[in-house]
Design a protein that fits this description.
The protein is mainly alpha-helical. The chain is built from 6 helices and no strands. Helix 5 crosses helix 6.
Length: 109
């Protein structure tokens, strides 16, 4: 059961709020600095520099053409992903983007 009779004097209450706000602001600044350091390390990471990105972000036009060619042959997304050595979601996303682009072209005409 909470104690309803506990009250701080007016000035003490004001200073308590100020101290709590400063502590919270300090914690936020420390967390932001740590996050910025993490982003810098991630940006300079050898994984990213070595091309550790999804296939559709670094894929060439030849890759996209090969995906479309395999799909035209009747292969499933799983089979295409195995042939291209990338995740199924990447293949599905590439095909969906191609279908959306084709739909937009059809609407423009």
């Amino acid at each position: 059961m909470p104690c309803d009779n506990f009250r701080l004097p007016s000035r003490t209450r004001e200073w308590t709020i100020v101290v709590a706000a400063c502590a919270l602001a300090g914690a936020i600044l420390i967390a932001a600095a740590a996050l910025m350091d993490y982003w810098v390390q991630l940006r300079d990471s050898p994984r990213i520099l070595s091309g550790f990105l999804p296939k559709d972000l670094r894929g060439s036009e030849e890759d996209r053409a090969k995906i479309l060619e395999l799909k035209a042959e009747g292969r499933s997304i799983r089979q295409i992903a195995a042939a291209m050595k990338c995740p199924r979601a990447t293949i599905a996303r590439a095909l969906a983007r191609r279908a959306a682009a084709a739909a937009l072209e059809g609407q423009r005409r």
